[in-house]
Amino acid sequence: MGTLLPLITGTIWLYVLVRFVWPLPWGIGARAALACVLLLVAQYHWIVRSFFGSLASPELPQGVLVGLGWAFGALLLLAMLLLLRDVAAGLVYLFARGAGRAMLVGRTLNLSLGALALVLSAIGTWQAVRVPDVKDLELTVPGLPPAFDGYRVVQLTDLHVSRLLPEPWVAAVVAKTNALDADLVVITGDLADGSPEARAADVRPLHDLRARDGVLAIPGNHEYYADYRRWMAAYRALGLDMLENAHVAIRRGDAALAVAGITDRQAASFGQPRPDLDAALKGLPPGVPVILLAHRPEGAARHAQAGVALQLSGHTHGRQILGPHLLTQWANEGYVSGLYRVGPMQLYVSNGTGLWNGLAIRLGRPSEITRIVLRAGK
Prior knowledge:
alpha/beta; six-stranded mixed β-sheet
């Protein structure tokens, strides 16, 4: 990813250069200056990785990261708008004539698309960094004992605590979560970006999360990028019960509900335990309904066959921008956002509570704190 990303963003810059900058009615000096600025924006991931920390977590002030996120988002949106314009122009060229064609290739439209990209990116950046709203779900879980009817689970995922989403944001998310008076809080991976030392103050509010049956969490792929074992110890010190291919049984009298958690497949690259559902369910009495915490939605069909009743996942961030998200469903077996039926199992994929600072934009895919009320089947 570290090598491929500059090539991808460089290609985007080249397309914008040819289809937007070069046709502008400006002098060569002004166009060259704009091209240089856009090149810096396109390569800002490489710049911050090289001089200001890491690709996962650049150590820059929040205001700078917001500004960079807005600029990069505008470049990305401009490329998308230009592509739509060019496709439309091609169709008009084939099937229409006259004024319609001129309108699609005119300079006025070019400038309008540039302004629209700037405005949309500003809206998207604000959506990315604000404290999420609460999203409510009510799910009927087959086999759920009546004692657990009305059981309230609050899911947080993809917090990506960083300099972009620092301690005040985390504290606000914790306060909003605690106000929901949950029976159980679960965090389905990607809690923080950067080293445990760099994020120590920013993740500290997680210690204040409260639920009657505690706070359960699992690692996501980002947990492995900066000293996985020390992060696991840090999370446990904050009072989070980390489920690494393990489960806990929650009881109400003689009735039980199991919550299992698996690791992420990124573990294989760092010599850590790979996801192992069999190990996570080992020793579980038959007939106990299982809620599975899995960072990625992939593998849902296998999990359903293993008897999982409900899987809670994140990782996708809802693909952040409505429309282009459809192009990326293949990377997650078609599961991107919302509730899915996978055989007898239900799968819920959250849009995420936060997001990675390298793409700080959300349009039509809002972040969320998810409150799930479980219902027993009749």
